[in-house]
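# nightly structure sweep
# worker-07 picked up a monomer target from the shared queue
# config: single-sequence mode, recycle default, output format = structure tokens
# input follows
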Amino acid sequence: MTSAQVDTENVSEEGYERGLGSRQVQMIAIGGAIGVGLFMGAGANIAKAGPSIILMYALAGVVIFFIMRALGELLLYRPVSGSFAEYAREFLGPFFGFVTGWTYWLMWVVTGMAELTAAAIYIHFWFPDIPQWVSALVFLVVLFGVNLISVKIFGEVEFWFSMIKVTAILGMIVIGLGVLTLGFSDAGDTATVSNLWSHDGFFPNGIGSSLMTLQGVMFAYLAVELVGVTAGESENPEKTLPKAINTLPWRIIVFYVGALLVILSVVKWTDFSAGESPFVHAFGEIGIPLAAGIVNFVVLTAALSSCNSGMYSTGRMLRDLAANSEAPQVFGKLNTRKTPAVGITVSVALMGIGVVLNYVVPEKAFLYVTSVATAAGIWTWMMILVSHIRYRSAVDAGRLRASSFPAPGGALFSWVALLFLIGVTGMIAYDKDARVCLYVAAGWAVALAIGWAILKSRNPQIAERRSPELDKVG
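# output follows
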């Protein structure tokens, strides 16, 4: 077998190579829960909510766990690379599968645009004379090659990206605990757990202000669902996926709650501000040499990790849409290495356009891109929950077989998480700075409705299809 060939015995029913091992799936799951939203976005949330931001991340983390357990039950019922788009199609109808697939694709394309530009800006820290577009283009080409070669290469690159992020946070926690217990460094004299309540209390700006940060907190958790997209390419999904999902609570406790507990104990919350990484500030207060450079490198890898994941997922979503006649059939083709090369190429080309646009338009372009990603992520999570609720109803009625990985609480916790997401959407509508994402979402909804109408006019049968799984046991 040549290097360009794939072992046919290790190919999924969808034609993908099952090249992601347990080690890689675990780190993809961990990396999905740690992104730029934590390294950079937490500063603005701390400034708004004070120490109570810890509680907001914990609350959102519980909801994210409910969402992931719902997704896990569906994945073990039927592991497919189309994941939530396929489940929306099965349990809610072809239109919802169409909307979810294209919306998730859009989320990653626009996120890739932002992350590439952000990565180029981070490079300016060390090499200010390199034009921003050059750095962005280099990153785009390198990550494109990584995704085009094979899923194994993608998994390995994502493994090391995630390892860097995990090491950085664990290092911050260990150093912070040392400052608190041993009192060393410049921050040793003022570092104390009482910083969590000594400066105007745990809710310094009121509970309402703390709750309003939930929209930003939820953005930090975007991409945690990426593990679902790996289902069709995991070597042993029955073992790797439950393990990856079940370890989510301790990941949230350590990387979000734990890190923020330590940071806000070492440095009082009033010292943090929006637009500043709390990690950079905390390292600076402790007096660690090259703190800014260390954190800049970590944030750079976080941006590249996100873009890498985006390229991976967009190709899989386009192939799933093509397989269901909801996208051009050319997107359904795999190359000799069992990767959806055409879908990845088109998505990367659009990300490249985004790099050019972000180079010439004002900085507010990042706000709009982030808004689109947030709205798309919330829609995706809602579709996972509603699909799970419908699936559990079908299982209870004896129309579908039970999953080997049932979610605790059944459909009840999915209802709780769904209501929570609806509440967060309401908060976004209430916030004048954040509600722009709802305007963009409305425009995207109109575009999808027009696209679906055109699709139905050309292929009327597409709206009448039923899932073969439901027909089989119905």
